[in-house]
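Subject: Protein record for review, amino acid sequence with backbone structure tokens
Concerning: The relation between a protein's sequence and the shape of its backbone.
How to read it: Take the token row as a discrete description of the fold.
Enclosed: The protein record, placed directly beneath this head.
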Amino acid sequence: MSDILHYTFMQNALMAAVMVSIISGIIGSLILVNKMTFLTGGIAHSSYGGIGLAIYFGLPIFFGASLFAIFSAIIIAFISFKQRHRLDIFIGLVWAVGMAIGVILVDLTPGYNVDLMSYLFGSILAVSYQDLTFMATLLLLVLFFVHRYYREILAVSYDSEYASLRGINSKLFFTLILILSALAVVVAIKVVGLILVIALMTIPTYIAEQISNSLYSMMFLSALLSTLFTVIGLLFSYNYDLTSGASIILTAAAFLILFLIVKALLKR
């Protein structure tokens, strides 16, 4: 372990793993209790349009992906308020159009040979100082939002109608949660990629939900479990020269299976 930390790229990867895991644990809990998993999946895949946008115009990847993801989140939030019964159709549309835009813009970028695998399955070992700065900023933003508006988030997540009667703007908080989910997806793409990002946000959260008695404890445990899975998966991928994103998700899946087995045995 000490030998690994001599390498700058591994130091950056571990810092990114911890920060993204905390973000994913907190936001993943909000996604789960607000039943936003499918919505967030649409945002995750549509954000590839932002990656293509950034590549085509020579912008930072996180900047382009964040703009596109936030735009997609606002569209989905607006549609969910107006035509919720048709939401699945529009999410599929945003999902497909976003990815198509990304692919076309990459194709149109002169002299650029992009490695699609790095965006589809993550490239945590290539994390830069700018990436870490973006992740740290988002982590502070998420922590501030949850700490400052915990009561409002709790009310909106479990009973939006009651929250509205109490004078809480449910639509605003729903949209803010969706936007933060979009940004969390963007940073998680660097760790596990577009294809696996939802698994990172749901597996630790599901386990945490089963052993928590409050939203606060659920977020804390989810962040802790996500960090554990990500670090173990990262070290496993480094030692055996495997794709880091896939190794992290398989680690999380293995722990989930073990948890379900232990839970079933305890019930007996």
